[in-house]
Amino acid sequence: xxxxxxxxxxxxALQGYSSVTLLTGVGIAALSYFVFCSYDLLGRxxxxxxxxxxxxxxxxFVCYAFNLNLGAWLGGIALRYRLYSxxxxxxxxxxxxxxxxLITNWVGYMIxxxxxxxxxxxxxxxxxxxxxxxxxxxxxxxxxxxxxxxLACRFAKKRDWTIRGHEIVLxxxxxxxxxxxxxxxxxxxxxxxxxILLPEEAFYPSILGxxxxxxxxxxxxxxxxxxxxxxxxxxxxxxxxxPPGNLVAALIGYRAIYFLLPLAxxxxxxxxxxxxxxxxxxxxxxxxxxxxxxxxx
Length: 297
Prior knowledge:
- This protein has 297 residues and is an all-alpha fold.
- It has one domain (7-281).
- It has ten helices and two strands; from the N terminus they run ααααααββαααα.
- The chain has helices at 7-15, 19-47, 53-70, 72-86, 91-118, 132-155, 173-197, 204-221, 229-238, 244-296; strands at residues 160-163, 166-169.
- α7 (173-197) packs across α10 and α9 (229-238) runs antiparallel to α10.
- The chain is globular and about 60 Å long.
- Its main location: membrane.
- The chain crosses the membrane at residues 20-36, 56-79, 100-122, 128-152, 173-196, 202-220, 248-273.
- It is a multi-pass membrane protein.
């Protein structure tokens, strides 16, 4: 497909985007990042730590941008532990924040994917190994799992477990519903960004479903940013519905707006966070030294 692609057509499609479309795309991306960063506000409510929202948003923004571009282990896990621990949180608390964030993301995913797949809103090519009926059954199973989680949060009598020395507590139904809402909103916004970059004949529920399929495929293949995976699935499913040049241009625009631009900003924010942490450690060391001198005197 790529070998036969008319790159002049792609170039023309990219040049055809109006400033309004691009600014709208940036706005959608910013809103999506804001929603994702709010996952950790749920984590604050869940764990009861006292970090201010501004610190949480800046930290989570950096982690999300790094997560998308460099992989979940570096951005989603290792960097989160590093930055939160520098702000004084214990490992157990960080683990619980991370667990709430992950569940929020995937509960929202299962609700949306379950709805799109079970309602057969995606048109699959005849040569796909997974047929429409199989995809529909997968969608129903996802809805069942999501519903089971919400019901467990409401009715479960045993609400805490200890895993590798870390206590995991089942959240309240209210918190679980907030998880489902934020998770679904974030995935919907990501699909909306691709949708506005495509021609008018694009069908939003189909775009959402294809994004959800490509995202899980990217996780399974362990390729950072799902590079090439997202593009292959979108092209494979939409090449007969949308002109290839417009489709590739939309995916390039999506990569630039949702991945590269936030990563550039996140690098700057990360340097600021590291500088602040270094200053705080230096100040803490000076205070400790003065206390030691007072005690010896």
